Amino acid sequence: MIITGQELVKAIENYAPLTLKMNNDPTGLQLGNLDQPVHRVLTTLDVRPAVVQEAIEQKIDFIFAHHPVMFHPARNLDTSDPQNQMYADLLSHQITVYAAHTNMDKATGGMNDWLAQKLQLQNIQPFGRDVDNVALGRWGRLFQPLSLRELAQNVKQLFGLSGLRLITNDEKQLVQKVGIIGGDGGKFYSQALAAGLDVFITGDVYYHTAHEMLASDLNVIDPGHHIEVIFSEQTKILLTNWAQTHDWDLTVQASQSNTEPFQFI
Question: Rounded to two decimals, what is the model's pTM?
């Protein structure tokens, strides 16, 4: 059965309702026409020029992304700007782009559950509630205690990282109760403290916030933002399962383009 973008989005939003998204988060349709049939889907963390070229080469007609492509409105349509050229390429090839951002972060079985499961945490529970009292983060316990340094090394290995940042007063301290918020979750560190976490894993920790964490004796591992690339494979699995269950004529593939902007040297 051939489905439209509208039907696919309905399934996505049933799984990760828009009511969960944070204020001012431009989640949802980014570009294109949801009335078009969808045959081939590309799942990706980011929508960048390399991802768009990959989509064009693979004859993709729907990109399902975690990060919105249009965080800020275009001020003009000058295609000498690479961002505007990317929009032009998407439109000229009739590729629809849809993003599920903070709603997927909060959703049960969404981003932070995937990250907690990747860490092999046991008895996963929610923490880190926003103004709507919906939990963004997840915590659980390691199968056995590890030193903070050992856990940091495990995080590097599990997520294929060449480096990360460690905030601690004692890297030899044994830890077991671990919380995680993918992306930029530093502002939730007081809730990590309140939850009694031994260590809080989150990305993009600000310098002054790191000082406050140290003063509060909170252990933090900052693996960067790009660990959320787990979205690509997990949503590929999700959409493929839906296609099999509902007999959709749909091919889903995860982007192979690397959108990590940083190199560790």
Answer: 0.96
